[in-house]
Structure formats: structure tokens, C-alpha cells
Amino acid sequence: MNDECATTLEAEDNPSYTDQELRERLRKLKSAISKPRLTPVVKSYIRTYTVKIRDRTEAMLGRTAIYFPIFEKYLSETQMPDDLKYLSVVESALNPMAR
Questions:
Q1: At a CB cut-off of 8 Å and minimum separation 6, what does 64 contact?
Q2: What whole-number distance in Å separates Cα of residue 81 and Cα of residue 31?
Q3: Cα 25–Cα 69–Cα 26 angle in degrees, nearest 5
Q4: CA 28 to CA 51: how far, in whole Å?
Q5: Predicted TM-score of the model (pTM)
Q6: Nearest-5° Cα angle at 35, 18 to 40
Q7: What is the average pLDDT value for the chain, to the nearest integer?
Q8: If we measure between CA atoms, which residue out of 80, 95, 11, 90 comes closest to residue 51?
Q9: Closest CA to 72 of 56, 85, 54, 59
Q10: For 38, how many CA atoms within 13 A lie in the half-sphere containing its CB?
Q11: In this model, does residue 9 exceed pLDDT 60?
């Protein structure tokens, strides 16, 4: 696929958000660990996960239904912040075969 086709697909298949819309969405996130901020690095990751690797992101988000309840149970039992479950997304994209 050439760059022109990829750009067209991105524009057609993926939503586009202004910086203000992204800031508002981040503001609504509740976190016991840190306050989310919109920085150039964060914007780059948002674009990567919502446009460049959208299909893999959708698959990973589907796995949250399986794994997050397990993580939440043990985090609650040990009185750890619930937000720690998101580390599994960063570390392995919830892939049980990741090394």
C-alpha cells in the first residue's frame, strides 16, 4: 500500500481529534497514580494506537475483558492501586505469550 492510500484509509476509517478534545478526554480519566497530560509524546502514542496499529489495539482491548477482572481482584486484595493493571498493557499488550 502506498502512502497516499494509507493516508486516505486513515482519514476514512479513523477518528480525528483536536488537541482540545484530547485534553478534555484525558482530563476525564481518573487515576490514583498520576494526572494524565497531553504532551507531544502522548499525542504520538495516541496516534500510534488509534491509527497506525488500530487493529492490534482493538484485539488488545478485547483481552481486557479476560484479564482485567483477574488483575483487579488481586490488586484489591493487596490494597494496591487499580491503575496498576494498565502496566500489563504497556509491558505485553495483554499477550499471554509475550516474553
A1: 89, 94
A2: 9
A3: 10
A4: 22
A5: 0.69
A6: 40
A7: 86
A8: 11
A9: 85
A10: 16
A11: no
